[in-house]
Amino acid sequence: MAVDASTPRTSPNPPGSPVRSGLRKVVAASMAGTIVEWYEFFLYATAATLVFNVIFFPPSDNPLDNIIKAFLTYAVGFIARPLGGIVFGHFGDKYGRKKLLQLAIILVGVTTFLMGCLPTFDQIGYAAPILLIVLRFFQGFAVGGEWGGAVLLVAEHSPDRQRGFWASWPQAAVPAGNLLATVVLLVLSRTLTEEQFLAWGWRVGFWLSVVIVAVGYYIRTKVTDAPIFIEAQAEAEAAKKSSYGVVEVLKRYPRGVFTAMGLRFGENIMYYLVVTFSITYMSAHLQMDTSTILTLILFAHVVHFCVIPVVGRFSDRLGRKPVYAAGAALGALWGFVAFPMFDTKNDWLIVGILILGLVIHALMYASQPAIMAEMFPTRMRYSGVSLGYQVTSIIAGSLAPIIATMLLASFGSWVPVAIYLALAAGVTLIAVAAMRETNGISLRSIDEADRARDAEEVRA
Fold it and tell me: Are the C-beta atoms of 329 and 270 separated by less than 8 Å?
């Protein structure tokens, strides 16, 4: 799909204009919920490494065995995410982004609070991990529906030439949520003894989600869906159309869906190796102190948050493809540099390599909302972006910590893990080569092309 070269490269809305002010409110609403969702998701990821492997499973001679089991419960959330994306995408294209986002934030808040109430293995045996898996499934289901609606709420409100920048802010909410979760766990781990933290301290972080959810839900009540969606919804109702949902988007835009999956593959694996498996590597393999590890991760999340909007701006100026390709190429090399740095146990070297990993990740992650929004027409955009983004998580992010831990346990070396990441980044480079450059394209022109295609099919 070609970009209209006649479209001006400057926004028609000057700073301080009502449109710009309204866009900031939309960004705030999107970020508020996304911070909540990822605070809770990352809280689980960290707890799986530090807590759940100890209290929800029977003792094991090899500490990595129970970590793998805990990561398997973690993977359940990723399996549920595509289902959430499909369901929320279908109804979000039909009824609106805002309503589904409000539902998602409530669902993830309730499930996370209940996780903090679960009895341990010593108390109820294998029922404990079973209940954990059930709650994890519903948490993942809600998060799967959250992302597409959050980024589209912003992308569909954004000026064409600044979509990469504005739509990157919900992505920045991910490290913000992770940062918040890390701070909570760090404070708890530093103020409590290890026995207290394992007995009840970890639960506090899960219970705090109620407060954060209430704030996020309130903010989301103050925004509306974008005009382009309201127009598309009215058009569909007038024409009595029901052509949206996963089947329709796969039928009409398979290239967009599979390209989105390829773009997501290496990025998703890299992220969970940097922020999740690195904790396992440093705690279980290098025997580093938990508080030290969380502090180092904390600094990396701060930089990640700051870098994502900057990269989003670059994608508007330089194009989506070159920025994304740079991230994939550098990601292929990161593992070979990172693990020798981890092995030094030098805090400065470790925080530096964690920051580098998340900066490289941002080169891919920041522009994803704009890229994926520009692949699909409005009437099926929620379904398209959710499917392309979330399905990949089953074979990418969900399995990455498990595969990496198993490789480490089997070979006793980080080299296979680095090779695994390099191969994943290679898949993403292929997807970058296959994608169209859509920087600056009008979403209305995509809708017009979709309508023209419909009309042509009717005439045929």
Answer: no
Q: Is 218 exposed, middle or buried (0-12, 13-18, 19+ CB in 10 A)?
A: exposed
Beta-carbon contacts of 440 under 8 Å, excluding residues fewer than 6 positions away, are 3, 4, 7, 9, 160, 161, 316
Cβ-contact 175, 297 below 8 angstroms: no
Single out the residue of 268, 260, 243, 220 nearest to residue 32, CA to CA: 220
Short-list 164, 145, 167, CA closest to 93: 145
Phi-psi region of 398 (alpha: psi -120 to 50; beta: other; left: phi over 0): alpha
How far CA 87 is from CA of 63, 104, 120, 276, in Å, comes to 38, 11, 32, 28
**Most confident segment among 41-55, 71-85, 197-211, 353-367:** 353-367
- 117: tokens are 């109430």
Angle at 102 between CA 101 and CA 103, to 5 degrees: 90
Alpha helices per DSSP H over 221-346: 227-238, 246-252, 254-272, 278-280, 290-318, 320-343
Q: How far is CA 6 from the centre of its chain?
A: 34
CA 378 – CA 362 distance, rounded (Å)? 26
Question: Which residues have a Cβ under 8 Å from the Cβ of 274 and sit 6 or more positions away?
Answer: 300, 334, 338, 354, 357, 358, 361
Spatial CA neighbour of 4 closest among 167, 156, 154, 161: 161
Contacts of residue 392, Cβ cutoff 8 Å, sequence gap at least 6: 260, 261, 264, 265, 268
Task: Specify the amino acid at residue 317.
Answer: R
Q: Distance (Å, rounded) from C-alpha 33 to C-alpha 213?
A: 7
Q: Is the model more confident about 240 or about 303?
A: 303
For 71, half-sphere exposure in the C-beta direction (CA atoms, 13 angstrom radius) is 24
Of 314, 354, 348, nearest to 335 by C-alpha is 354
Q: How far apart are CA 27 and CA 43, in angstroms?
A: 23
Residue closest to 106 by CA, chosen among 200, 193, 218, 184: 218
d(CA 93, CA 82): 16
> Are 82 and 394 in contact, with CB atoms under 8 Å apart?
yes
Q: What is the DSSP string of 6-43?
A: TS-SS-SS-TT-HHHHHHHHHHHHHHHHHHHHHHHHHH
Q: Are 380 and 244 spatial neighbours (Cβ–Cβ below 8 Å)?
A: yes
> What's the predicted TM-score (pTM) here?
0.82
Would you say how long the chain is, in residues?
460
**pLDDT score at 239:** 61
